[in-house]
Write a sequence for this structure.
């Protein structure tokens, strides 16, 4: 029987090389006040927070190839809700076209936090793949900061 509930799917092994050797870089509960504030602002309060509150946002790095991924992602029902209901395309484009300095500063802070995970590398040596890049504003800022970037939507 197919479930119509939003849930998370586990991807424990590296999606690039298949290695099971990895370590956690970052984790924050979806019901953490900081995460709730972010989700409400980014998705204009359209996210059904109770449907994801019991899980955590995680970033994991492969110990073999260095790829960084989310080991838990929304199931098909959750992805459909994300792209059909939570993301408003017109509002998203409007945000992208009218971003202020505060947004670019936030992107820069995120990118320098990312760089801090690799203290032995300079930004041009850090390759970033943004899968689900949206309008590409995060990637444009990363490129301006010297990172080697690739984006897909």
């Amino acid at each position: 029987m197919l479930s119509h509930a939003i849930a998370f799917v586990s991807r424990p092994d590296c999606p690039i090389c298949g290695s099971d050797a990895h370590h956690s870089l970052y984790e924050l509960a979806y019901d953490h006040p900081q995460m709730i504030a972010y989700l409400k602002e980014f998705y204009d309060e359209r996210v059904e927070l109770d449907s994801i509150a019991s899980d955590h946002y995680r970033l994991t790095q492969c110990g073999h190839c260095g790829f960084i991924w989310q080991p838990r992602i929304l199931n098909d029902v959750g992805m459909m809700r994300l792209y059909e209901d939570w993301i408003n395309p017109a509002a998203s484009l409007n945000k992208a076209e009218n971003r202020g300095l505060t947004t670019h500063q936030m992107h820069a802070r995120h990118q320098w936090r990312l760089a801090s995970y690799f203290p032995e590398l300079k930004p041009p040596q850090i390759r970033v793949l943004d899968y689900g890049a949206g309008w590409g504003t995060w990637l444009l800022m990363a490129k301006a900061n010297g990172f080697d970037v690739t984006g897909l939507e």
Notes: The chain has a mean pLDDT of 90. The helical segments are 33-42, 76-86, 89-97, 101-116, 137-144. The beta strands are 8-10, 22-29, 56-62, 68-69, 72-74, 127-131, 148-152. Residues 27 and 58 are 4 Å apart (CA to CA).
